[in-house]
Design brief:
The protein has 479 residues and is an alpha/beta fold. Helices cover 39% and strands 23% of the residues. The strands form seven sheets. It has a seven-stranded mixed sheet with strand order 14-17-18-13-12-20-21, sandwiched between helices. A six-stranded mixed sheet has the order 9-8-7-10-11-23, with helices on both faces. The structure holds NADP nicotinamide-adenine-dinucleotide phosphate. It holds the Pfam family Aldedh.
């Protein structure tokens, strides 16, 4: 291994601390490292460094900034295998998924690097012969970026790349569950020709770091990805300084399967999405709504596929489903499954923990039938490998069930009727709709939700806009 994780990066320097946070391998329970527990004083140092660096970084050409980002993408790809191993060991996801995620990081970085060259302004027709109106886009300033553990690489790249491409400087605060991969990914950014202070990373107490970022007026924007509960708290904190904030929060994605769908394609896509990352995916399917005419057929197809999934330690060959992230996550899944069965649902596949290691974080891929939309398992974000199946009688009923959620991140449906496809896409109250497939997270498209799933978008030119301010310039000609 060529990485160690005993440092943060502030102003281009490796900062170590005497006090640290222990990092646990969720598959085994082993302590696999320790990362710094940074002090408030050092977070303030990072803010000053980023503020100072902003002056030059924001004045470089987009082409120059793109060159630095391209170096970062190349560094990540050159270490893809090693980084994937670190991620798999620390987060639990299968090695193949972690390897793919490092590739996705490079794609996000490259796309934003290029799109930064197309941050165009506007010329607007004036209201008098002497007036000239132009609108320019300028970087917001120093940004605080707070990321979760479930996609510990992609969530960093999806924020840092557009911020840097837009000309902002950043302070990243990764999840304490997955700080090692974040530091390793940052090591690769620091191996580029980037100026000191442009990008900083701090690990430690989330509330202290976040409070320090929010209370400092030099921080002009916070971009947060994580739970809706914490997102709501941060939104209130942002109000004090009318600080810009974007929020990528929890989801509860419904999937609707109609009788005219190709049921094999639907079953393949549902199982692939539902059990990716052990079900710990913000845009992951939460409930499967199936029409009564096809409920037996689609349930069998899903169940057959789920029974074949290989559960195990993510770094072992051929594993498709790893452990959950921690005990709270397993407890939540157990509670939701018990609540559902006590209220009349039936377990079709799985339904129990697996004794793969003494750490107790493995849960069988599970399919539950006879689920009612009012059950907690249908209302809450499960964030685990459990597929609850709900039966409906009409399209209108399915849409009503789907839209009843307070979340609005992603929804999916399967149909081969073009009229139905348009009607349902327009009526579902979600920020993203997957039709006959579940792939949503790509660099060029606006990823994000409505309702309590957040505000703002990551990806596409919309993602860059989140790190830009509009400035309107009215020039009065003097002749
Ligand atoms: P979380 O508990 O909200 O934590 C997210 C981040 O916030 C972590 O860095 C965490 O740091 C930090 N944090 C925790 N308490 C905080 C506080 N009081 N003030 C400031 N920061 C605080 O979420 P998670 O469990 O890591 O992630 C899972 C959630 O993220 C799910 O709900 C999922 O749907 C959502 N998510 C959404 C998207 C999207 O694009 N919409 C993408 C991925 C995940 P510590 O770990 O150090 O406490």
């Amino acid at each position: 291994m060529s990485y160690n994780y005993n440092h943060n990066w502030i102003n281009g320097n490796k900062i170590t601390t005497s006090d640290g946070i222990k990092v646990i391998n969720p598959a085994t329970g082993d302590v696999i490292g320790e990362v710094p527990k940074i002090s408030e004083h050092e977070v303030n140092d990072a803010i000053v460094a980023a503020h100072t660096a902003f002056k030059s970084w924001s004045n470089y050409t987009a082409e120059y900034r793109a060159d630095i980002l391209e170096q970062w993408a190349q560094n990540l790809i050159s270490k893809q295998d090693e980084l994937a191993h670190i991620m798999s060991e620390e987060q639990g996801k299968p090695y193949a998924e972690a390897y793919g995620e490092i590739g996705v990081c490079a794609k996000f970085i490259r796309w934003n690097a290029e799109e930064g060259k197309r941050i165009y302004g506007e010329i607007i027709p004036p209201s008098s012969p002497q007036q000239r109106i132009s609108v320019i886009k300028q970087p917001v300033g120093v940004c605080g970026l707070i990321t979760p553990w479930n996609f510990p690489g992609a969530m960093i790249a999806r924020k840092v790349a557009p911020a840097l491409a837009a000309g902002c400087t950043v302070i990243v605060k990764p999840s304490s569950e997955t700080p090692r991969i974040a530091i390793a990914i940052f090591d690769e950014l620091m191996r580029t020709d980037i100026d000191n202070g442009v990008a900083n990373i701090v690990t430690g107490s989330s509330s202290m770091i976040s409070n320090t970022l929010f209370s400092n007026p030099k921080i002009r924007k916070i971009s947060f990805t994580g739970s809706t509960t914490i997102g709501k708290q941060l939104m209130k904190q942002a109000a004090d300084q009318v600080k810009r904030i974007s929020l990528e929060l929890g989801g509860n994605a419904p999937t609707i399967v109609l009788p005219d769908a190709n049921l094999d394609i639907a079953a393949d896509a549902i199982v692939e999405n539902k059990f990716e990352n052990t079900g710990q995916m913000c845009n992951g399917i939460n409930t499967v709504l199936v029409h009564e005419d096809i409920q037996d057929e689609i349930t069998e197809k899903i169940a057959t596929r789920v029974q074949q999934l290989k559960v195990g330690i993510g770094t072992d060959d051929g594993v498709q489903v790893g452990p959950l992230i921690n005990k709270a996550a397993v407890d939540k899944v157990e509670h939701l499954v018990a609540d559902a069965t006590q209220n009349g649902a039936n377990i079709k596949v799985g339904g129990h923990k697996l004794p793969i290691s003494s750490n107790g974080l493995f849960y069988q891929p599970t399919v539950i039938t006879n689920v009612n939309p009012s059950m907690a398992i249908a209302q809450d974000e499960i964030f685990g490998p459990v597929a609850p199946i709900i039966t409906f009688k009409s399209i209108d009923e399915a849409i009503e069930i789907a839209n009843a959620s307070q979340f609005g991140l992603a929804a999916y449906f399967f149909s081969n009727n073009i009229n139905t496809i348009y009607k349902i896409s327009e009526q579902l109250e979600f920020g993203m709709i997957g039709v006959n497939g579940t792939q949503l997270s790509v660099p060029q498209a606006p990823f994000g939700g409505i309702k309590e799933s957040g505000m703002g978008r990551e990806g596409g030119h919309h993602g860059l806009d989140g790190f830009l301010e509009l400035k309107y310039i009215s020039l009065s000609l003097q002749e």
